[in-house]
Amino acid sequence: MATIEGNVSEADFELGVTLGTGSFGRVRFATHKANQNCYAIKMLKKSEVVRLQQVEHMLSEKNILKTLSAEPHPFIVNLAATFQDPRYLFMVLEYIVGGEFFTHLRKAGRFDNSTAKFYAAHVVLIFEFLHLKDFIYRDLKPENLLLDSTGYLKITDFGFAKRVAFKTYTLCGTPEYIAPEVLLNKGHGKGVDWWTLGILVYEMLAGQPPFVDDDPMGIYQQILAGKLNFPRYIDRNVKALIKKLLLADLTKRYGCLKAGAEDIKKHKWFSDLNWQHLVEKKLPAPILPNVSGASDTSNFDPYPDSIEEPSIPIYSGNDPFSDF
Q1: Which has the closest alpha carbon to 38: 299, 305, 300, 293?
Q2: In contact, 13 and 41? CB cutoff 8 Å
Q3: Does residue 241 sit in helix, strand or coil?
Q4: What's the burial of 80, exposed, middle or buried (CB within 10 Å: 0-12/13-18/19+)?
Q5: How far from each other are the two terminal CA atoms of the chain, in whole angstroms?
Q6: Where does ATP bind (predicted)?
Q7: Share of the chain above pLDDT 90, in %
Q8: Domains of the chain, first to last
Q9: Measured between alpha carbons, how far is 12 from 145 in angstroms, rounded to an integer?
Q10: Count of CB atoms within 10 A of residue 154's CB?
Q11: What predicted TM-score, i.e. pTM, was given to this entire model?
């Protein structure tokens, strides 16, 4: 997907339905009036971004996506353009027609061994690629994965991603997916992503993450205790891999050792997977979304349209978004 050249504004797009909502705004389906291509436009309220002290995260997300889109990866959503008006920041992203992976997982309840393996392998390749560029993702969860029309994964939402050669100290992520070193505030690096892969694989196979509680503190206690219980039906090879990923000791956690991602790729669970064929999208996908065309939005849950307040600029003086 090519970037949109020249100055871009909201007037260049025909805005459609809301595809998702978040703390700062919403993602809307859009058609570019000139090239007729479909996009997903992330609209972020500047006032909310400032109130929730996320200015740095937003600027970082834009810069990381811009860097990654210059050398596109088949499983990472591309950024086509960014622009702003007095109230909003806009990120024009590639539109992924198959909907949220989360929806497909919830519909199935849980995935069989081969389906979970197919999708876990995507994430291994995504993290391997990001880590080679010194990016950590830090926010893996089913809601941040999308399915394209062929049933292959694309990762989105780089709001927590960061360029880190060694360690960083910010607490972020979703409670069920937080690694122990993040909770202990010891400083964390690329290893957090491999921990979250272990949680995702478990959730795909069991239908829920390994550490669950109504109270986040209860979840954190379980994570630090590190006790894993597996349903009986889980394949022994994948159980062995999950245990290697969900190790608090970073000197033993798979992905963090000398061979990096290779330890995971060469694990017994993946022995029948052709990694090259996966990258080239030559393997049959276990889930084929029902898609009628490039502009189909039926795989996304319907959201009510927001009632917009009148457009008022929120700054006098220095605009912290001048770099956006």
Answers
A1: 293
A2: yes
A3: helix
A4: buried
A5: 21
A6: 42
A7: 79
A8: 10-94 (3.30.200.20), 101-279 (1.10.510.10)
A9: 27
A10: 22
A11: 0.92
C-alpha–C-alpha distance, residues 271 and 278, integer Å: 13
Distance CA 50, CA 63 (A): 18
**Neighbouring C-alpha atoms within 13 Å toward the C-beta of 134:** 6
Residue 42 in marked binding region: yes
Extract the tokens encoding 221: 């206690």
In this structure, how many other beta carbons lie within 10 angstroms of the beta carbon of residue 303?
A: 14
The sign one gets for the Cα dihedral 208, 210, 214, 219 is: negative
Provide Rg for the chain, Cα atoms: 20
With cut-offs at 50, 70 and 90, classify the pLDDT of residue 297: very high
- Residues in a beta bridge with 136: 162
CB atoms within 10 A of CB 274: 12
Of 112, 134, 139, 319, the catalytic one is: 139
Is the separation of the CB atoms in 255 and 245 below 8 Å?
Answer: yes
- Contact 160/172 with Cβ under 8 angstroms? yes
Say how many CA atoms lie within 13 Å of 281 toward its Cβ: 11
Which tens digits make up the pLDDT trace of 209-222? 999 999 999 999 99
Are the beta carbons of 163 and 64 closer than 8 angstroms?
A: yes
Tell me if residue 193 is catalytic.
Answer: no
